[in-house]
Amino acid sequence: MTSIAVPPSAPEHTGSRLTRVLGAATAVSWVVWLTYGLVLSPADVVQSESVRLFYLHVPLALSAYLGFTVTLVGSILVLRKNSAFWDQMAGAGAEVGLVLAGLVLVTGALWGRPTWGTYWVWDPRITATTLLFLVYLGYLVVRRLDLDAEVRARRAAVFGIVAFINVPITRYSVQIWNSLHQEATLSLTDTEMDGSQLTSFALGAIAMALFTTWLIIHRFRVGWLEYELDRSGLESAILERRGERTATEVV
After folding, report:
1. CA-CA to 65 of 20 to 30 Å: which in 84, 95, 106, 212?
2. C-beta pairs of 114-121 under 8 Å, 24+ apart in sequence
């Protein structure tokens, strides 16, 4: 059985000192967040215990936007620098962001049942989030097209830039259209949350952002290993072909 050679420049795993420190910080932040948000903070006067879904739902949405922002930045740099590094980074951001966006829809449905009496309505925010999920799913499909690697990366980059238009539309959909979904409870000038709710939300936002960053870094490194492996295989095939041609000429 023939084994596939790993390029000498490729690491043996996706971990590093940075990811280990980031992973430890993520674990600690999650313990603090879940302890405070699920146990120590009181129930809401109106929403009762279901308010605890807010501490998960909104940080998930913000972290999904973070992942898609990474895709936007990476896509711009792909077009400017023709960079394989940023192509892999853009893909990593989209994959992580897509998973988080899916979890936003799930937790939103679970939160909607006790709040609205149903898991799903065609509310502008829910519809916009669903379209956002589908658009980035399409972006990942483009990244898998059977094309030349450089052509595929540039097409995906254009798609990734255009797709980001849906992020602010989703974020401000409640203000743009009439919506059952509550408006933003936190802004730079005012907040409707009391001290314990604000603390729970802040802890959740920090913990989820750390977790998202950790995931994106690991997914990028997996993608980079795949890229290095493909490039190594292509170079080996070219060298082998040249060797066959030289041998034929000698004969």
Report:
1. 84
2. 114/47, 114/48, 114/50, 115/47, 115/50, 116/180, 121/180
Tokens (6 digits) for 158: 């254009």
In this prediction, residue 7 carries a pLDDT of 41
Give the residue ranges of the chain where pLDDT is below 70: 1-15, 177-194, 232-251
CB 176 within 8 A of CB 135: no
**CA dist list (Å): 62 to 69, 106, 109:** 10, 15, 17
pTM for the predicted model, two decimal places? 0.81
Of 176, 110, 194, 204, give the one whose Cα is nearest residue 185.
194
Q: CA-to-CA distance for 137 and 16, rounded, in angstroms?
A: 29
Which distant-in-sequence residues (6+ apart) come within 8 Å of 238 by Cβ? none
**Quick one: which of 181, 153, 128, 13 has its CA closest to 71?**
153
Instruction: Render the burial of 30-53: b for 16+ CB within 10 Å, e for the rest.
Output: beebbebbeeebeebeeeeebbbb
